Amino acid sequence: MNNIIYLDAAATSLKPESVIKTEMDFLRHSYANAGRGICARASAVDNMVAAARMRTAKFINAVPNQIVFTSGTTDGINRIVKIINESVCGYSLKNKTIMVSDLDHHSARLPFEILSKSLDCKIVLCPLDAEYNLDCSDLPYADVFVIAAMSNVMGRAQDVARLVAAARKKNPDVITVVDAAQYVVHDKIDVKKWDCDFMCFSAHKIGADTGLGIMYIKNPDRWILPDKFGGGMVSKITGSTVTDNYNLQLEPAPAKFEAGTLPITQIIGLPMAIDYLESNRPNLELIKYLHDRLSKNERIKIITSRDATMFTFYVQDMHVLDFGALIGARGVCLRVGNMCASWMHKLLGINGTARISVGWWNSFDEVRCAADIIEEIIK
What we know:
Aspartate Aminotransferase, domain 1, seven-stranded mixed beta sheet, alpha/beta, about 375 residues, single chain, four-stranded antiparallel beta sheet, Aspartate Aminotransferase, domain 2
């Protein structure tokens, strides 16, 4: 495995030693449940989780009660759909207009599209410019706007703040939902500047562990009922449903959105991943090198621009899965397929692509070797 060249950072990041050590130390010496006890050990874990929440809030320029821990971006966006579709909050998605785009990942767009079929929602597309960026010059009216901060195919950062502002010119009450799963690795998130209502990303993309995501909620008190119920989020239950004298009091945010046991070990490792990422962003000169070198080969059709955060391409007259099998057999790990972004590939008129993405661990020699292998395969 040491001879593998791992060029699939956009799918998931390798883990810094600081994350691994922190989680191992916690599991060996400090493990206990969070929010479930008053003994010294349980209290210490509560403090660790609180510190991780505070570090995460600082990372995106939020405050701790706006940070909800989920199992990932997919979980977060699916939960957002349920949270905002609660009539008790005075809001329902029934007959609403939802704006999505062809840049969207399946997990960002499908939850809204599937719900629209049962609630008679209208789905509209955010226009794209000639370079496949979200075009905010003339947005359609929308009640909900799903924004891909960075496509996992095109690798270009979108101007989220401008898009939110443009959508609010058409509808001051529009609810904005930002998928930042790819963006978070490459640029600083400032939710105050973005002024979005919701934002999600996955911890494993930035070097933390799997099974953990971050959901930002701008106004957590607006949404009265959470999307799920269980331990740790109930303050008091009085009366009985039998006597119709039932009263449920929930803990304030973020606890009311975190029913059940949290992914504690992953949360404890999260601050280490954030610290490491902030001083070890991916070296995008490696992507420029690939673009400059492989663009000279006529059979390689490059999808991404030279300044993108990833290198997406396909080989003329070669099935993308065949290419993936051949390069994988030579020890190079990259992504092939439709990247869970069917709409973007349909727009491009192709069935699939290959994607190279780099992380803090990748060297110039590795990328040069991968380029050598690609050229050998397609001779």
